[in-house]
Write a structure and sequence with these properties.
Elements lengths: L1 H17 E6 L3 E7 L14 H10 L4 E3 L5 E3 L2 E6 L5 E6 L13 H12 L15 E6 L2 E5 L18 H4 L22 E8 L5 E8 L12 E7 L2 H9 L5 E2 L16 E6 L3 E7 L10 H9 L3 H8 L4 E3 L22 H10 L3 E2 L5 E3 L2 E2 L1 E7 L2 H15 L4 E7 L1 H9 L6 E7 L7 H4 L17 H12 L3 H18 L2 E7 L1 E6 L26 E6 L1
Helix pairs in contact: 6-8, 12-13
Length: about 525
């Protein structure tokens, strides 16, 4: 028995010494997401992270980002840029099929861009496609002609492509209502399988299966299942009960609440996003006054918020330009925390404190209604802001809503006085989509309804300037206008925290352009392994 046992042991050692583990096909990954899918449609998904996550897996784009945040070809095979930097000729991968078996070609790309450009379809991407000529050269070649050189043009080609043969018969009025928004057909590594709803029509789970005909490397993981939760604590409980293997986003304060941490890998990375309180001056008498917005910025202790809410895992934000971006300048004059200065600004402007410590001016009371999403991180931030701002005589009323409610009933119609919300800047620091006058109304993303001729000209100039130093100066001058106008109180840029079971391997996440980009190369993830000869 000793001899047999010893021989068996040596046999195993010999086998492992002569072989190595490599990815194998199979397995199921289950992730928890806080939120609800609304429009799994790349033309509509940019305003809902849940939609963006699923779209990333289902749809392919001309270009995408790798795990280091660098832009790489996806449906595009290669491209040529003319000497005057105005014409992009893009060759497409051949032999690409839609999930229903139909052949993909350049006509699908032109069709998708035409939908984006048409205001009737209300795509948030429309602003980036004004004045661009799209030409169908042949079935596998497209040509784009832009009016002015634009540094970030390839970044604008990272949206998913829709199948013309399915969407061409859908009119604009029914575009957001079509069943393809929940049961989509794409060319990505995973395709729709099933979904489960409760009696109130809420989506409980959403299942994707591997696309065996994916034009790139076939995905190793056979199934991707997503369960949806009302809040982060519910998702965390599910992780601790081992009902799910990962959470789309975890607050820093909840890292310690993960049980069995030895089995969980926690990816921490910076992404170009920030959270701010956006002011709608058309809905509030106090916020229409420059001195009120300026005082609120000085009354905001960003460090306290980061330490309390984020556990120190984040950086202060004073503008849309974060550390490392073109145009970021650390010593640019800004409104650092100063309660005395905030009080003096309001005193000098005639906002007088009453016996109740509440400020009034003429018939107006310094009262602000602050709306936000009912995520723990944001509701806690709102509560801290309420305490901080009340110290200078401001009354703050907080209302929190689920993401779908706040999107449809508040953000799109701009029905809020002050909105605590986040924005993902993207790979290029171009502030056009969030701060240009063109995007004040839905589907634009200018949540402060900010913009004038001077600020718009600086944004426009920055978009066409290939000289890095000159472009940075445009953005510095733009930020100076922001600091004068105070259309928002910028708060922080949190670290992105992604906990996932160590059984899931092959993940390369170093720099993310947006949270959904964690799935950019999900076809390389694997759970199963096999051994082959070294």
């Amino acid at each position: 028995m000793l001899f047999i046992g010893s021989s068996f042991g040596w046999g195993i050692i010999f086998y492992y010494s002569k072989t190595k583990a490599v990815p194998a096909f199979g397995g199921e990954y289950i992730e928890g997401i806080v939120g609800q899918p609304l429009y799994i449609n790349p033309l509509l998904s940019s305003s809902n992270e849940t939609d963006a996550d699923l779209s990333q897996l289902i749809y392919s784009s001309l270009f995408k980002y790798d795990g280091e945040g660098k832009i790489i070809p996806d449906l595009a095979e290669n491209y040529e840029l003319s000497e005057d930097k105005l014409t992009y000729k893009i060759s497409l991968n051949k032999n690409v099929h839609w999930h229903d078996g139909e052949i993909f070609n350049a006509d699908d790309v032109v069709f998708t861009i035409n939908l984006i450009s048409n205001p009737a379809y209300k795509s948030p991407l429309r602003g980036s496609w004004q004045g661009i000529e799209t030409k169908l050269v042949d079935d596998s070649t497209i040509e784009f002609k832009i009016k002015n050189p634009y540094v970030g043009f390839l970044n604008d080609l990272t949206f998913g492509i829709l199948p013309k043969h399915l969407w061409s018969s859908v009119n604009p009025d029914n575009f957001s209502l079509n069943s393809l928004n929940l049961k989509p057909i794409g060319t990505g590594p995973y395709k729709y399988s099933t979904l489960q709803k409760d009696s109130h029509d809420n989506v409980l789970s959403y299942k994707l299966v591997s696309n065996p005909d994916y034009f790139s490397l076939r995905p190793y993981i056979s199934k991707m299942t997503f369960n949806f939760y009302l809040d982060e604590n519910s998702a965390l409980d599910a992780l601790n009960r081992k009902e799910i293997m990962g959470i789309s986003l975890l607050s820093s304060e909840n890292i310690a609440s993960i049980k069995n941490q030895k089995t969980i890998s926690i990816y921490k990375t910076e992404i170009p996003r920030y959270f701010a309180v956006f002011f709608n001056r058309t809905k509030s008498v106090p916020l229409a006054n420059d001195e009120v917005r300026q005082a609120l910025s000085y009354a905001t202790n960003r460090k306290e918020i980061i330490d309390t809410v984020l556990g120190g895992l984040g950086q202060e934000a004073h503008s849309p330009f974060l550390s490392g971006m073109t145009g970021y300048l650390a010593d640019l004059e800004k409104a650092n925390f100063d309660l005395d200065k905030a009080n003096k600004i309001l005193d000098d402007a005639g906002w007088k404190k009453g016996d109740d410590n509440l400020r009034k001016k003429d018939e107006a009371t310094l009262e602000i209604n602050l709306a936000t999403v009912n995520w723990d991180e944001l509701t806690k931030t709102a509560e801290i802001l309420k305490i901080q701002w009340e110290k200078v005589g401001v009354k703050v009323n907080i209302s929190s809503f689920d993401i779908s409610d706040i999107q449809e009933n508040y953000i799109r119609p701009r029905e809020y006085e002050a909105l605590l919300f986040g924005q993902v800047v993207g790979a290029d620091p171009d502030p056009y989509y969030f701060w240009h006058s063109d995007n004040k109304k839905d589907p634009g993303l200018n949540l402060s309804l900010f913009g004038n001729d001077n600020s718009d000209k600086l944004i426009d100039s920055g978009r066409v300037e290939f000289d890095e130093a000159k472009r940075a100066q445009n953005y510095i001058d733009f930020q100076k206008i922001l600091f004068q106008e105070n259309p928002a109180v910028f708060l922080y840029s949190p670290s992105y925290i992604y906990p996932i079971n160590q059984r899931v391997q092959g993940i390369n996440i170093k720099t993310l352009i947006s949270p959904s980009n964690r799935f950019s190369q999900a076809n390389l993830w694997y759970i199963k392994t096999k051994r082959i000869k070294k």
